[in-house]
Amino acid sequence: MGIKSLLPGTLGFGTAPLGNMFRSIPDEEAAATVEAAWNQGIRYFDTAPFYGAGLSEIRLGEVLAGRPRDEFVLSTKVGRVILDEPEDPTTRDLGEKGGLFEYGRPNKVIDDYTADATLRSVEDSLTRLKTDRLDIVWVHDVAQDFHGDHWLAVYETARTGAFRVLQRLREEGVIKAWGLGVNRVEPIELTLDLNEPRPDAFLLAGRYTLLDHDRSLQRLLPTAIEQGVDMVVGGPYSSGVLAGGRHFEYQQAPTEIIARVERIRTLAAEHGVSIKAAALQFALAHPATAAVIPGATRPSRITEDVAALAESVPVAFWAALRDEKLIAAHAPTPTA
Predict the structure, then answer these.
(1) What is the rounded CA–CA span in Å between residue 180 and residue 193?
(2) pTM (predicted TM-score)
(3) With CB atoms 3.0 to 4.6 Å apart as the test, which of 15, 217, 267, 280 could cross-link to 47 if both were Cys?
């Protein structure tokens, strides 16, 4: 189990923004960003049908179709099926994430975690991505933030549907790995308690960042290490607020979060550290983390991410964060 040997590096590209998250992005800008990621050595790309009702997959596929398939790792997600019929993207019920992809394609998006829908979703993704295979498939958003009080019923449908299909596809060699892609720790903790089926890894977005990591450190990450299950950290910039944006948890950041970010930024400046370097290297310091996948919509952002990963961060900076209780006392940090 685990996917560290499968991934080509610790920095990947999360392509949710290519689905017109928060704003409408020109096709040329989206393509240039994917090209920049490739040209700077990134070889792991994560996407999902949900991102702009297939838009992210289409845009990613347009660029990667011209690259040797054996030279990159590709992951997408199941749990939502994209239909040909139209709907108003601004009226979709997305739980806590209302309006997230209102600038995406107007195709109707339906939640469906059954076995048949999982197989259909995989086939549809292959078409949109212009590829003959997927490396990793995540079961997407089986959690409270999208399904509210009914999330456990949705999870049970996924457990008996999507989970079993993906395990079978892995055993048959159709895919190399599978797991959950969620924004909450509870579905992962629940899955780690199962005897069968057994996922290889999880994509956890927004829950192991400089701004939010206490809950993950309590049980989830120690259990993952114990079971040999890897974590891919999504949303390392907490929806953008740690990278100069104004969003946190996919909504406008509250005043207290902005104040916390400014304090981190001040300490980073005092130690000659970029806040992006702090965010990425913090996420990667935990031994359960296999990769971090920040999103981007401009080529310059890719350049910043690559530089941030290579940046030297003094130990004194992490000590300063601990002293001010900006990170947990027991959170692993880089040693040099």
Answers:
(1) 14
(2) 0.96
(3) 15
